[in-house]
Design goal:
heterodimer; A: mainly alpha; two-stranded antiparallel ribbon; B: 614 residues; mainly alpha; two-stranded antiparallel sheet; 26 helices; 2 strands; disordered N terminus
């Protein structure tokens, strides 16, 4: 492998790692932040009613779970695109 | 040397096979429903509804028997993503979730939701942080992953030894729940039911290892889901006119609050109730919607994080990280598992609200209309006991003692529905408990055989590899049976302790191993020892200083231990020598999304080296 090819591969690897880290941090922090907010403000949220449920209860029993499902499938899609980009770059080099 | 990728094609007829399994299960339920109308006894219906599916699961396990090492440990690495998702969901929830979590919600209401939320977020953490990298490595067990990552047999031995305690607690909890269900519906003593369950799961594990567990477990998940969905949907239609219990139980919350108030349930003072309910029958004194009445806000958060970290690093879940064909498949299968667990976590409060509305509503009417029809049925099953303590002709909430683990079973009877639906829920819960207990038993057996025994006998000469695995599974099964016959086991409490131990011991080291190149073998060892050691001390000293006495206390101790373990791992790695070039190369290879499984590469190269030496 030439020096230039190694440099290109390293750059592709670093880009892949950075994107992977960014999407992982985004996914985990968004869900954990939402859960933390729902727990901290549970008393206040329970004064509001939503679909026959107190809002704090609804979020912890359903809303955040549905949100976590959507975020996970979004993460899977984005991560697969990131992985595919790296594989295609390697094929080119 | 370039290694050829093995073609891994799943069986194209799997959909048809499991369609037949689902049809058989539904047909059996319909036949028994007709038999009930024709006057068959409840006992016969329950026995057939429970035993016939067990015969089916065993037949599948026999059909999936194997003597191939790769099939035995990782199901040939060709399990389709959705089927692996079934198993991951069944292991996460388990029979403990099915019965004990539902019961805990009945008593704790809002405060118990932390556990369900923890499972879901734990699967999210596992899917994002660990699973893709574990699949890329493809080790048969979690300790084997650590050996590959750090090229250290000691790390593998330590990890294997430290996972014995939590996984044994989980096996015990799941077998206890399965035996409890059997002892209610079969004419057999509890000890005999324990033996039946133990023999069943040990036979499944020994016959075909991960392969038998996967295909038998998929059938168990399908019957478990159907067995829960059918009765619950019927109850929802009866009570709310809509077949979507998850979204319509909100309409019942007003009725629930009124029924609770009429039965004498008053807002509990925070701290007056001691944490999550135990398995002994007790009075449900906390209003369902009361926020942080049984557990404080901090305790709720600790319990959530403990279950999230414990689920993310659970060795029984991560041992399944090598069973799919690729990294992408494994990631998707975790997403499917998360969807299924979320569905259960959304459904569990609906079961509880319906059961509570029906039970408390009927209790209020006792002075005018006499005892409700379900009163004797639930008393016979030892789920419900009530006495008019103050002799005023009515029964208040303090007069009712309810068994936590029987709430899900009680629902069809409370709604005055045919008995077959009670038997259906029992069969469903039993199926999930069998799937989970089998997987935990196999994880522990495989680890003892492949991690501990193999460190003594690296080239399996003294005993063949499979024989050791069979022996380990049999020995642990026997120990579990003996333990259950001696000890009084509270499944939920055992599960909390097990998840706490996993969160403290394995989450920090897994996080450092997969995301930090600088992590060294000593960092990993110190991190595991710190997490386990501190939590173990807290648990031992629990009775002495009041730490870790309750579920929230255990969870808080696990969090502190996990943080200290993380700090210890980072500190030791930075203090010691930097990782070698080989370690860095392995780390980079592990982070690559494609290519041949690293464990298979290492095994093939070791085999070539052995042949050259011979």
């Amino acid at each position: 492998m030439t020096e230039q090819a190694i440099e290109i591969e390293n750059a592709a690897r670093d880009r892949h790692q950075l994107r992977t880290l960014a999407v992982a941090v985004t996914t985990v922090s968004v869900v954990l932040f939402a859960v933390a907010v729902a727990i901290i403000y549970a008393f206040a949220l329970n004064r509001i009613w939503f679909l026959h449920f107190p809002l704090g209860f609804y979020l912890l029993a359903q809303g955040l779970l549905i949100f976590a499902v959507f975020v996970t499938f979004w993460y899977v899609r984005v991560q697969e695109k990131i992985d595919l980009t790296r594989s295609m770059n390697e094929e080119v080099t | 040397m370039a290694l050829q990728s093995r073609q891994r094609t799943p069986n194209p007829h799997l959909g048809a096979y499991y369609g037949i399994v689902a049809s058989l299960f539904v047909s059996l339920a319909i036949l028994l429903a007709m038999a009930e109308q024709l006057g068959w006894s409840h006992r016969s219906i329950a026995r057939l509804m429970i035993l016939m599916p067990m015969i089916l699961y065993m037949a599948i396990a026999v059909a999936a028997r194997t003597l191939n090492i790769e099939d035995f440990f990782v199901s040939g690495r060709r399990v389709p993503q959705v089927y692996n998702g079934f198993l991951l969901a069944a292991i996460t929830v388990g029979g403990t979730g099915f019965f004990a979590y539902t019961g805990a919600l009945f008593f704790a209401g809002f405060d118990g939701l932390a556990i369900g939320l923890g499972w879901v977020c734990g699967l999210l953490l596992a899917g994002v942080l660990f699973v893709p990298y574990l699949r890329r490595v493809g080790a048969y067990t979690l300790p084997a992953f650590f050996e590959q990552r750090f090229r250290s047999r000691q790390t593998r031995i330590v990890a294997s030894a430290l996972q014995i305690a939590p996984i044994f607690l989980l096996v015990t909890a799941e077998v206890n729940i399965a035996a409890m269900v059997l002892s209610i519906f079969l004419p057999a003593a509890f000890w005999l039911c324990v033996l039946i369950v133990i023999l069943f799961i040990a036979a499944t594990g020994i016959l075909g290892g991960m392969r038998a567990l996967t295909w038998s477990g998929s059938a168990q998940f399908i019957t478990g889901s159907l067995g829960l969905a059918i009765p619950l949907t019927i109850v929802a239609v009866v009570l709310t006119n809509l077949p979507a219990p998850q979204f319509t139980y909100g309409e019942m919350l007003g009725s629930l609050t009124n029924a609770e108030a009429a039965s004498g349930v008053a807002t509990a003072d925070p701290g007056s109730l001691t944490g999550l309910p135990g398995h002994e029958p007790a009075a449900a004194e906390k209003p369902f919607l009361q926020t942080f009445g049984m557990i404080s806000e901090a305790g709720y958060f600790a319990l959530f994080v403990c279950f999230a970290l414990g689920t993310a690093a659970l060795p029984s879940l991560l041992a399944r990280s090598g069973v799919t064909a690729s990294v992408a498949d494994q990631r998707r299968s975790t997403a499917w598992a998360l969807l299924l667990v979320a569905l259960f976590a959304i459904t569990a409060p609906a079961i509880v609200v319906f059961a509570k509305v029906l039970m408390f509503g009927d209790i209020v009417l006792i002075p005018m209309q006499g005892l409700p029809a379900w009163f004797n049925g639930l008393s016979e099953m030892n789920i419900f006991r009530a006495t008019d303590l103050n002799g005023d002709g009515s029964i208040s909430v303090r007069d009712m003692l309810i068994a936590r683990d029987g709430i899900a079973l009680a629902l069809p009877m409370l709604a005055a529905l045919p008995y077959i639906l009670t038997a259906l829920i029992a069969a469903a819960g039993l199926a999930i408990a069998l799937a989970a207990s089998g997987s935990h038993l196999f994880t522990l057996g495989a680890s003892l055989a492949d991690d501990l025994y193999r460190s003594i006998d690296p080239q399996p000469i003294i005993l063949p590899r499979l024989l050791v695995a069979w022996g380990s599974i049999g020995a642990i099964a026997l120990l579990t049976a003996i333990y259950l016959l001696i000890a009084d086991v509270d499944s939920l409490s055992y599960a909390v302790t097990a998840f706490a131990l996993v969160a403290a011991t394995f989450f920090p080291v897994l996080f450092l191993s997969t995301w930090w190149q600088r992590c060294t073998v000593w960092g990993a060892l110190v991190s595991m020892a710190t997490g386990f050691g501190i939590l173990f001390l807290c648990l031992i000293a629990g009775g002495l200083f009041g730490i870790a006495e309750t579920a929230a206390g255990t969870a808080a101790a696990a969090l502190i231990s996990a943080v200290l373990a993380l700090a210890a791992g980072i500190g030791t790695s930075l203090y010691g020598p930097a990782p070698s070039a080989t370690d860095i190369t392995f780390f980079e290879a592990m982070r690559r999304p494609d290519g041949e499984t690293l464990y298979d590469q290492a095994e093939a190269q070791a085999e070539i080296a052995r042949r050259k030496t011979d």
